[in-house]
Amino acid sequence: MDSAKTGLARPISTRPLSSARAMTNTGLIAPKSSRGKTALRRQIQDKSYFIGLLRSKINEINNEKNVLMRECDIMGKEEARIGVYRQKAETLAKELNDLNLDLITYNEFIDRIRMGDDINGLRNIINDIKNENEILTANLENDFSQLKNMERIAKANEEELQKILDNINTIKSQFTIEQRAEYESMQSMNEDLGRECLSLKNEIEIWNNKKSAIESKITNDESIIRMEMLQLISKLRHLERQKNELINTDSSEENERGHLLAQVKRDNAYISNLESKIEEYTKLIDDVNNEIEFYRDGEKVAKFSDLKQKEKMHESFMTSFTSERDKLLSQTEVVNNEINDMSSKLSRALKYLAMLQQIGDVSSGTYNILNELIIQKRKLELDLYKIRQQKIKAETDKDNLSAKIDKVQENINLYSDIGKLKKQMELKLANTNKKVENIKNEIAQVRLQIESSNSEIREIRLELERNPTYAEVKQLESELKSLLQVNETLRSNDSSRMMDEIKNVALESTKKYNQSLLGF
Q1: Which one of 31, 52, 118, 316 is CB 3.0 to 4.6 Å from 14, fit for a cystine?
Q2: Helix axis angle, 298-359 relative to 119-174, nearest 10°?
Q3: A Gene Ontology biological process annotation (predicted)?
């Protein structure tokens, strides 16, 4: 009761509350029986007994908990060690990759030395690579410095723009009612002038479309005139043939000669085709022989496998290079967008300053700011042009590298199966040899026909030179050429006149626009 009043709890113990009964390890012993002996086997399971059991189990759990905590601490330390080892492994892996690349380069140089290359040539290659690396680093540093300068210029322009806007706002706040009305009227005038500019641009586009339509008509007319001239020439020749047929109705030798001439022309064309085919087949045979010699050498095949491995390394390098280049291009695009925004803001500020100059209440110090802004705008436009050119160069380099990679992949696909290639080349050799023999026989036959036809052609040429109609046909062709030249000169004069008229219209429109801007 006293403990309950004072608020202090009595400590729980595993001992029983009764002092008359002895305590054992298993629990309370039963009280004495009527015979005066204790019942050792009988056990009383009261509250204190269960509290003792709970205490013993709590102690066991605490011991297990302590053991597990120790194990957790040990595991944490091991995980920390594993993390350290992982970092070391990553660093060692990077070093290993670098050493592998160095080893590959050294192996390449050793292979070249074994093949018979000079050390001076290898030194020149190494110096070229070093120079390329130095140039690349210099270009990267220049690009980085240019980007920093552009950022600084952009920040300075933003600050100046903010100052200009603050000045404009202060000037607007100082305006009277009349000046505000004038300012609004000038804004409306500016909008009207912008609309007139758009209308003039549309008119210029219409005139350009008319010009292109006129040029297309001129080209169509030229094509029509040429077609008509060709038709007339064909009619003339047909009439000449009819005339010759009427004159030479009795003699059929000339018809035979014409047929022979046609046959000779066909034979010449056929012979030229055969000669071109023979040259192609000889080139193919040489290429096949070179490839067969290449595949017979075991050392070259081993070098080819080494080249494949090097190509794989090159592909991995190219993927990393393209990813880095894409990142740089994205960064340049972001910078270009920022510069475009700044240039648009500058143009707007310049327009507002021009409006304020017409009012006449602007101080003399703003003119210097305006000139500086114009100069900076021009510099920004030049920088934009340079960045765009660099972007175009990077895209062309990307296209060239992709084309080279495609060629390398095609060669890899071709030379992957050496056995199949060897069989294909042997079949090609057999087929080409057969074709060459057939072509040689055909060439021999054709040469005999050519010799017979050449003699006949000579006789026909002599007879044509004696004919007066042949001379008349040549005169007609010269007259046609002169007529075509005259027609072309007339058309050039017409186009120049049209261009002068269009220029005059454009000049008049620009004069009107300038007068509207100046206000007189």
Answers
A1: 52
A2: 20
A3: intraciliary transport involved in cilium assembly
Q: How far is CA 1 from CA 5, 6, 12, 47, 87, in A?
A: 6, 9, 16, 20, 67
Q: Name the residue with tokens 């990393």.
A: 320
Query: Which secondary-structure segment (H or E) carries 105?
Result: helix 47-115
Nearest C-alpha neighbor of 25 from the set 5, 53, 62: 53
CA angle, 303 then 307 then 313, to 5°: 150
Label each residue of 371-408 as H, E or C: HHHHHHHHHHHHHHHHHHHHHHHHHHHHHHHHHHHHHH
pTM: 0.21
Distances (CA, A) of 348 to 249, 278, 430: 90, 72, 78
Residue owning tokens 């199949």? 420
Any idea how long the chain is?
520
Measured CA to CA in angstroms, residue 116 lies from 86, 109, 234, 293, 401 at distances of 44, 11, 68, 19, 29
Provide the terminal-to-terminal Cα distance of the chain, rounded to the nearest Å: 115
Q: What is the DSSP letter of 9?
A: P
Containing 28, the helix (H) or strand (E) segment is strand 28-29
Specify which residues 38 forms β-bridges with: 32
Q: How far is CA 37 from CA 16, 43, 98, 249, in A?
A: 20, 14, 91, 167
**Token digits of residue 169:** 């706002």
Under a CB-based contact definition with an 8 Å cutoff, are residues 460 and 261 in contact? yes
- Summarised one tens digit per residue, pLDDT across range 127-156 is 888 888 888 888 888 888 889 998 998 888
Which residues lie across from 23 on neighbouring strands? 28
